[in-house]
């Protein structure tokens, strides 16, 4: 009887830690906390001058052996109000800085896995992308209503539970989401911590986003040609000063600013 009780307890814990996610969602890599334990072979590093800057730079690295090799770089824009510390793969504690919240116009700062690619192109025209791809249609949305069961999910309006009052249309008149990547932020879907975080195409180099990371279309396409889901790609997004500190702790690429 004692054995059965222990077995039942283990099964309950397993159910809590390994939930079944909807097909349109992205799973996150297990949280890590020690030096050099990040499993990525590809990293996108995004840095800004400070927490309130909307402009920054992106650096793409491949890991060859034990070394990070720079592949390319390009300018980006962040949230209209800059960065806010968010929940990622690594628990990062920084005192007296903005914290990412829903609707705060800040992009999340931290270390995050990168999930599904998306775009306006039909599936047959996106076969060159080495990540899972989802085509944006007039029924595909991302729910940002923190009271919805579909909070922070990509869902289809013709099949999803209609309990939301706010969402983002993934098929837009503008080309912002013509090509993009889903950032696995707030994967625990904690209400109010922020949702629907993407890497996508910008309007211009001085127009901030609602909380995403954006760039020129040609730069976005280059990332999609380069990125491979099998290499466990990560987005590391921080102000420069904080990046220098955490790059040493977690064995991230050294960047000479």
Which key terms come to mind for this protein?
ten-stranded mixed β-sheet; 13 strands; single chain; 3 helices; alpha/beta; three-stranded antiparallel β-sheet; disordered N terminus; 257 residues
| Number of helical elements | 3
Whole-number mean pLDDT: 88
Kindly state the number of beta strands: 13
Report the uncertain regions.
Answer: 1-34
Structural class: alpha/beta
| Rg for CA atoms | 18 Å
Short overview:
This protein has three helices and 13 strands; from the N terminus they run H-E-E-E-E-E-E-E-E-E-E-E-E-H-E-H. The chain is an alpha/beta fold.
Layout: helices, strands, pairs:
Layout: H1 2-17, E1 42-48, E2 55-64, E3 67-77, E4 83-85, E5 107-119, E6 133-135, E7 140-143, E8 154-156, E9 167-169, E10 179-183, E11 198-201, E12 213-215, H2 217-226, E13 234-239, H3 240-249
Parallel strand pairs: 1-13, 4-5, 5-6, 11-12
Antiparallel strand pairs: 1-2, 2-3, 5-10, 5-13, 7-8, 7-9, 10-11
Structure description:
The protein is built from 3 helices and 13 strands. It has 257 residues and is α/β, with parallel strands linked by helices. The strands form 2 sheets. Strands 1, 2, 3, 4, 5, 6, 10, 11, 12 and 13 form a 10-stranded mixed sheet that branches. Strand 1 and strand 2 (55-64) form a beta hairpin.
